[in-house]
Every structure is written in structure tokens, then in C-alpha cells.
Design a protein that fits this description.
- There is one protein chain.
- The chain is mainly alpha-helical.
- The protein is about 70% helix and about 0% strand.
- The protein contains five helices and no strands.
- Helix 4 crosses helix 5.
């Protein structure tokens, strides 16, 4: 029974390493270079999500709502957060901070 378990673990490990290699992960190396692509991919996805909801957040800001109230409104409207769940005040705050950073950088009018 132990041998069967070892084979199963070994098989899953080989498959996971193969998948990682297919994603471009350099196996056997560690450090920032190995995670840079993943970090950039997440940032790009977060930027795209924020751009999709820019007008909605402008509307909520214009109403003078708190971050908690914005989260309540988004959830009441059935608008999923970036990963599909419900909004929290922290997620709203991070979204607004992203918009602020864009304005400071001059990428949003």
C-alpha cells in the first residue's frame, strides 16, 4: 500500500513540474527571476479588471460612499470581485489606490 501511495505522489509531482515548465518556470532556479513573469501576469490581470470597473467606481466615489458601503453596494448589485467572490472594504481600498496611482502617473484622465 505504501508503494502505491509513493507512485501516486511521484506521478503528481512529475505532472506538476511538467505543468510549471510549460508555464515558463525555470526549474532548479530560485529567486526573483523565476517569479517575475507570474507577478507581471497578476498585475496585468488586476489592471485589466480595474479598467473594466473604472466607471462604476467613479460613480461610487461621486456618491461619497465609504469603502465598506461601496463593498456592500457592489455585492448587492451582484458584481463579483476579481476572483469571483464578494467585495470587502480592503479590496475596494486597493482598487481605489490603484486608480490614484494611475492618476499620479498620468495614465488616467
Amino acid at each position: 500500500m505504501g508503494e502505491l501511495k509513493d507512485e501516486s505522489i511521484s506521478s503528481r509531482t512529475r505532472r506538476a513540474l511538467s505543468d510549471a515548465k510549460a508555464r515558463g518556470v525555470k526549474l532548479g532556479t530560485a529567486g526573483a527571476d523565476n517569479i517575475r513573469a507570474t507577478v507581471q501576469k497578476r498585475k496585468d490581470a488586476a489592471d485589466a479588471f480595474a479598467r473594466e470597473h473604472e466607471a462604476l467606481f467613479a460613480e461610487l466615489l461621486a456618491q461619497g460612499l465609504t469603502h465598506r458601503k461601496m463593498a456592500e453596494v457592489l455585492n448587492a448589485r451582484g458584481i463579483p470581485a476579481a476572483r469571483g467572490g464578494e467585495w470587502t472594504h480592503g479590496q475596494v481600498q486597493r482598487m481605489l489606490e490603484r486608480y490614484k496611482a494611475w492618476r499620479v502617473a498620468g495614465s488616467v484622465n
